[in-house]
Amino acid sequence: MMLATRWMQNLSKVDFVTSVGLYILRDRIILVRLRKNFRRVSLLEQEARELPEIDDKQGISGLTGWIAEDIKEIALKAGHDSRERVLRQALLSLMPYCNVGRDSFFVCVPQDQAIVQKIFLPRAAEANLQEVLEYEIERYLPFRREDIYYDYMAAGKEGEKIGVFLFAIPKKSLSNLLEVLASFGIQPKGIETTATALANYLFFCAQETSELATIIGGQDHSLEVVGVQNKTNGWKSVPELIYSYWLREMDWTQSPGKDLLQQCLSRSARLYGWGEVEEVFRSSDGESLPYEDLVERGKQQFKGGGKIAHPLVLPAFGAALRGVREASIAGNVLSGDVKDGQRRSVLSYVNAALIGLVVLVALAWAATYPIKDELRLRQLQKENQKLEPAVDALRREEDQLQRARKEESFFAQFDQRRGEVLRILDELSKIVPTNAYLSNLRYKAGALEMQGSAENASTLIPLLERSPVFENVGFNAPSNRGRDNRETFSLKADLERPKEKTEKGVKP
Predict the structure, then answer these.
(1) pLDDT for residue 468 is more than 60
(2) DSSP reduced 3-state for 465
(3) How many Å apart are CA 227 and CA 213, to the nearest integer?
(4) Is the pTM above the cut of 0.85?
(5) Going by CATH, does the domain composed of 2-346 fall within 2.40.100.10?
(6) For residues 41 and 34, what is the distance between their CA atoms, to the nearest angstrom?
(7) Could you identify which of 25, 168, 491, 496 might form a hypothetical disulfide with 115, taking C-beta atoms 3.0 to 4.6 angstroms apart as the criterion?
(8) Is the model more confident about 359 or about 388?
(9) Is residue 52 over pLDDT 70?
(10) Which fold has domain 432-495?
(11) What contacts 24+ positions apart, CB below 8 Å, involve 139-146?
């Protein structure tokens, strides 16, 4: 059953598509383009562009002679425009490496630009989780509901509570990016954080994560810690996000952040690292903890387009995997309309055609069984018709054999009975006195009945008992004496069977 389920899951992922993942940082933008042919995912492009920061406040002050603090609002507007200009130039240089008309675009942002929080709600809210979050989200986030893009993900049950991961990004942080992308004709189908992107990257590269695995990434002296596990629900595997933390240098080098990091390391059965993590995996005694490099793991999985150039491209890989439908964990902070449209398009046209073909083949294969049975039946009938004369002849011979056996048995029994009757008659003629007459004699199955008359019928019993032929002699009915002073009698006796005499061993 499990193998059949896995086969169907692999079949549902068959496709021929291309996807682009964009990882947007404060100082750079990274593009990864993937292609999926049937079930093979290959790397087509990986590019990075710097996003330099421009100090427009000093520039405006130099041009106008105003004090920098007096032009704060003007500088903010100028900074916004300069960020948009730099982002537009970077995207323009990346356009030759993608196909806007055919590629699906997915965006990933680091956790320091978003909010990833695990909250707990009563179990009663599980049935209407989305409606409950609509009303309760402002209690957990320092933003108004209409000022954020958000998404949520169930995170298991703990006692009387259910865990929910909440992902939120302020709209003002994404509005500039979405406007620039729209100017190039790009409508991203999903925006997620590095937590879900890295989890999907790991599940794609290491599908054997049935135990708790921790991903630790180091960048700009900060750490991102993500815990995932591929849990089993009956015969189905369910990938889950267990925890997600963003720790700055001052957090993970001192308590309580250091204790939290050590707890994650001790709980995990497998450790994966990317970026600047050598110091993290070094224990207090100077020895390094065993971990696997995610970059090296990806090199074994992706084909074509060269090797993975830099650890920072991994989140872009994880975002692009969603476009080739190889993402295990959902995550998209865009509006509900976009998310609903993505959820409805679970199967592509290629999948629908393949599944339809499989169904037709299965129906055709099932339909061949009655046809094969009918052909076998007709073939057997023809063979039976050929064998019918021989079978009839065998049946006639068997009937003749049975009749011959019955006749043989009859004559054998008749010969045996004739010998017994002659023996009985011979013995009676010797021992019955001349003054006794037998009028009727009947013998059947070793039992003898005789009727007749004698002067004294009781004298016949000892005579018959002394005979070696008869035993158990007795009257079968009371005797009567007639006018001629003779008794009529009816006797019965058993034919004496020869008894086996066992002789004990005698020494000579």
Answers:
(1) yes
(2) helix
(3) 6
(4) no
(5) no
(6) 7
(7) 168
(8) 388
(9) yes
(10) Gyrase A; domain 2 (3.30.1360)
(11) 140/166, 141/115, 141/117, 141/166, 141/168, 143/168, 143/170
